[in-house]
Design brief:
Blueprint: E1 2-6, H1 13-23, E2 31-35, H2 45-54, E3 68-71, H3 86-91, E4 94-97, H4 102-112, H5 114-121, E5 126-130, H6 132-135, E6 140-145, E7 157-165, E8 168-178, E9 186-188, H7 201-208, E10 215-218, E11 222-227, E12 230-235, E13 239-242
Parallel strand pairs: 1-5, 2-3, 2-4, 4-5, 9-10
Antiparallel strand pairs: 1-11, 6-8, 7-8, 10-13, 11-12
Length: 244
């Protein structure tokens, strides 16, 4: 399995170089499919999806200069013949899995059959995950919600918790979910990000304690590069590895 799991896409030259290395060719010579399914449970999801396609979002991915770019919508796949979409996945050099709600995304990775296909493909495409796209590639993950999440995503447990943030304590629903299991570690993105105030290092340590696997907390300048099950950190920022 070749994967690049990021907090905010290809945000610096080090991560871009890692992506090119995984592809084995320049980005300009590679074809990609982008998955935007995870963003739709959020208010304004369709507009955010368009920004992601147009390369206008905060995370740099679709606008990297791909030779070709197609859209793979997971909620459609159970309703169409596999012959209509499986060849496109097999032919892609990269599968770009955008952010959003990791529970919803993980659920549709299973229901669509994409998760199983990726396990079978192994090295045929590079999996590039952004935020929820990185989280959903793991086996077990945790995420916080203001309100009960709509997608079940195979939740293992949930509870009401209070987390400290720079602006004071906040109430959240902490959910433990089940991802696609493409990698044998977990990811907590957006470490110490101003727009994700509960993703502090102290809170990440508490979340990681609930995950029975090594857990990387990464900021927006960091990625995890995976080749044949071996993970290495690519970073121009900050990160922390928590052991189970």
């Amino acid at each position: 399995m070749r994967a690049l799991l990021t907090s905010s896409g290809v945000s610096n030259d080090s991560i871009r170089d890692a992506l090119v290395g995984l592809l084995g060719k320049p980005i300009e010579e590679a074809g990609a499919l982008i998955v935007l399914t995870g963003i739709y449970p959020f208010p304004g999801g369709p507009a955010m999806a368009w920004k992601a396609i147009a390369g206008e979002g905060a995370a740099s991915l679709a606008g990297l200069g791909w030779k070709s770019l197609g859209i793979l919508e997971l909620t459609v796949l159970p309703h169409i013949d596999e012959a209509a979409w499986v060849p496109a996945v097999r032919e892609a050099d990269a599968l770009l899995v955008w952010g959003g709600d990791p529970l919803f995304l993980a659920e549709w990775m299973r229901r669509s059959g994409l998760g199983g296909l990726l396990h079978a493909l192994r090295d045929e495409a590079v999996y590039v995950g952004v935020s929820a796209g990185a989280i959903a590639a793991t086996s077990t993950f945790v995420e916080t919600y203001v309100e009960p999440p709509r997608g079940n995503g195979g939740p293992l447990e949930s509870e009401n918790v209070v987390f400290g943030t720079p602006d004071g304590d906040v109430d959240r629903i902490l959910v433990t979910g089940q991802g696609a299991g493409l990698v044998d570690f977990a990811v907590i993105p957006h470490l110490d990000h101003e727009h994700h105030p509960d993703a502090s290092l102290a809170n990440a340590e508490k979340w990681a304690a609930r995950i029975p696997a090594p857990t990387y907390a990464i900021d927006d300048q960091t990625a995890i590069c995976v080749v044949d099950g071996v993970a290495r950190v690519v970073s121009e920022g900050n990160w922390k590895l928590f052991q189970p």
